Amino acid sequence: MSDVSADSLAEIYRTTYRALVRFLYRKVWDAERAEDLAQEAFARAVVHKPENARGWLFIVAANMARDEARRAARERRHLTLLTAESQDGTATSDEVFQEEQERVQVRAALEQLTPRDREVLLLWDSGLSYSEIAAHTGLAPGAVGTTLARARRRLVEAHEAGEKGEHVARG
Amino acid sequence: MSHVDDGTLHAYLDGELSPPEVQSVEAHVAQCPACRTRLEEERALIARAGELLAHATPPDRELPPFRPGDVKPPVRLWWKVRTPVAWAATIALALGIGTYVGDRGAPRLEPTAPERPTIIADQLARPAPAPDSAFAAQRQRVAERRKRVSKPAASPAVGGAIEEKSRQAPPVTADGFLASKAAAPAPARPEMVRLGTYADAMKGPPIGVDSARLLLGTDPLVVPDLQIRGMYRGRLLGYSAMVIVEQALDSTTVIEVLNGRPSRLQLGEVVVTGAGEARRDTQSPGARALLNTRAVDSLAAASRPAPTPVADEEKAKHAALGLFVDVRGPLPPDSLAALRRLLRPLRP
What are φ and ψ of residue B241, in 5° steps? Predict the structure, then answer.
């Protein structure tokens, strides 16, 4: 069908870039890395000219983030205590610290979702429609709402549980 | 009529139902108080989930310009790069750790090795591969060629990607306010404390420069004017916080600058330096300890040059920040020492 021109890709870039960075950030948890990966996804889109560029970008981004996570997992074995003690003795403004704490808690809650639930939730939050999410994940279109309902509930519950038991060991 | 299930309620609230479906949901909710309550509950749930996700958002940056011709080649991952110096680095690691463990606490930063050429100077002095504009033009050409053959080539030209990354660094916030937070005073018998050496530092997940500052309480030290490839959390016994900054000397040589904040429990001030390969996660701590001990034995009689005044100054300066810093990478110790002397706080 119709080729993706540079113009329409530029438009997609304008409307989707930030959402893609946000999507990636919630997978790699490093803002600069997320931006690098988003840039690379767009660079690949320029080369491949995919038909549905927006959906394609998120699939490519998800794959890149997965490769990244595999590498990180290999190096994480010895680091399980790091998050818990890392803030020790480091004074910083309360606001920044609170924000960082909140981020850590949301991240921990997100990581308790099943991969599929998390993916659907992150894709929805990135602005993809149910049909785009269905195409991305292989879910039946009718199942997206159910998955999203479950993902949202689990996120909120996991976050509440995390707030109550802040010192519970991470999984 | 049967109740509306959760999935349908969410699809309704997300505006993802077709008009007939919307009608049927609204008709049911209008005459079913239970579903009306659930609808409001799900609405609140959706709002709360959105709120939580908003906390997990990267800092808002300006949209970088979109240049269709600006296609970055796939970046060669440095940990997959096998350079001929890897073996040399392994040997240097063994010698290095042993030597420094041998007299920790002594104010010596590194041995001089006059028979070995200092290669670092010319690496630093070498100009960038190509001026920006020429480089961009070259990439443009590459991109066009790729379009024609519609098959990506794999020419590694890492420079551009990294340059861009280092430019993206966000503005500095507070620094130096921790300058007064020097390390805890060092009591006697530091040799009783089994601290990890810097070469043992484990590399953790990638972090951003903001997180690095937050962890250290100050700017991480870096080698100025070298491309920063990334920052990682590090982990090492005796340090409450560690940030590892990866910097590229050239397209195949990457060094790591380790910035450590000693934990309060540390009993002796230790600056341990050593060259090493970046990945050593195959060795158990026991094996490392053994290696260290052997190296100490074999090097016990080796001549130990006196400390240079420069090294002392540098050490004092970094200690004043409350940080202990080292550089590791596949380079001879004297080159690493030269890099160590160049370290400055990161202030983009």
Answer: -145, 140
